[in-house]
Design goal:
Elements lengths: L27 E8 L8 E6 L5 E5 L2 E3 L8 H9 L5 H12 L10 E5 L5 H8 L3 E6 L3 H8 L6 E5 L12 E7 L8 H10 L1 E12 L4 H14 L4 H14 L3 H4 L14 H13 L8 H10 L3 E5 L7 H8 L7 E7 L2
Parallel strand pairs: 4-7, 5-6, 5-8, 6-7, 8-9
Antiparallel strand pairs: 1-2, 2-3, 3-4, 9-11, 10-11
Helix pairs in contact: 1-4, 7-9
């Protein structure tokens, strides 16, 4: 893989050219700049296509390929309302779900597909990779603010179903807990696979399909929660967070009705909201996800083990009994 030495790079925008969303043939160029005064005051201006003349707003370091949140509006609020950055935990989760330490990505061009509030983009940028975070929701504003001190991080508000990048733009692409919230997860996967360079890596984590009874109960619960107002749903999620602090319930009842048992009460509420607020939530099998990778021509496809260990947990995990657990796959593009 070719690497950039980000130590000598100058602040600029964008590090990976954006493809025009209208004609899809030319890269957008930075036409006008209203302000730039160092990493803490990021680019603002206009990105323009020299071919068709399409113009894209660049606001405080975020390129607006789309200007509406559509089906991800709940995430736009969620990732700006909850402070979920926990550096040590973020590092453990990233290593487990991506299959590599972020220090190994130094100098690479990396795509964080569905960056949310930017906690993993921050981690990757901190370790010297040139990272581009993409999210359809306004969470990209929180991500850009979190990563403001890094000149090697930029953010784009765009749909994962139509990524604004040319083929084979990135050395490393990862997506943790995102494309199962798209209306067409397999189409989103094909877009991720398209922008991985030859010899590059794609790491994916999506929700695992559970037993028939668990899936049915989840569908019934979410058919109710997705119709609640934000205030009503937040109150419900805080109630579930209380249940998640009770030892006898967090290892029994939450195998039927999902609620977070994270030790941090803020993260418990956020996790519950993440599960019950979103419009789309698809669950997948290992065979299904492996098929995606193989159909896209990836090799060295491997499944990563869950972060949690323990004999009982692994027994339940292998039988698809853990609600909210994932199918975690990494593959290489030849």
């Amino acid at each position: 893989m070719q690497k950039q030495d980000v130590r000598t790079s100058q602040p600029g925008w964008p590090p990976v050219p954006l493809r025009c969303p209208r004609c899809r043939e030319r890269a957008l160029g930075l036409e006008t700049v209203r302000s730039y005064a160092g990493p803490r005051k990021p680019w603002s201006g206009t990105l323009a296509c020299s071919g068709c003349g399409e113009q894209i707003a660049l606001e405080r370091g975020v390129a607006r390929i789309v200007d509406d949140e559509d089906y991800v509006d709940t995430f736009g609020w969620q990732w700006r309302a909850f402070d979920v950055v926990r550096p040590e935990e973020d590092l453990r989760v990233f290593c487990a779900k991506v299959g590599t330490n972020p220090s190994m990505l130094r100098g690479m061009s990396v795509l964080d597909a569905g960056c949310g509030g930017g906690r993993y983009s921050r981690l990757v940028a901190e370790h010297g990779a040139c990272v581009t975070g993409v999210d359809r929701s306004r969470a990209v504003d929180a991500a850009a603010a979190l990563c403001r001190r890094f000149s090697n991080a930029c953010f784009v508000q765009a749909d994962l179903l139509e990524l604004p990048f040319a083929d084979e733009s990135f050395d490393f692409v990862f997506s943790i807990g995102v494309i199962h919230h798209c209306p067409q997860p397999q189409r989103a996967f094909r877009e991720l696979a398209r922008v991985v360079r030859a010899g590059g890596t794609l790491a994916l984590w999506v929700y695992r399909r559970n037993t028939w009874l668990q899936e049915r109960l989840n569908w019934l619960a979410r058919s109710w929660t997705t119709r609640l107002t934000r205030e009503q749903l937040e109150a419900f999620c805080r109630f579930l967070a209380v249940l998640g602090a009770i030892p006898a319930l967090r290892v029994t009842l939450n195998k039927l009705l999902n609620f977070s048992n994270h030790p941090d009460p803020v993260l418990r509420v956020c996790d519950n909201y993440d599960w019950y607020a979103c419009r789309y939530q698809f669950h997948h099998t290992e065979d299904e996800v492996r098929g995606w990778f193989e159909a896209a021509g990836f090799t060295d496809v491997r499944f990563l083990p869950p972060l949690k260990q323990g004999t009982l947990y692994r027994w339940a995990y292998r039988r698809n009994l853990i609600i909210g657990s994932g199918v975690n796959v990494v593959g290489r593009k030849p």
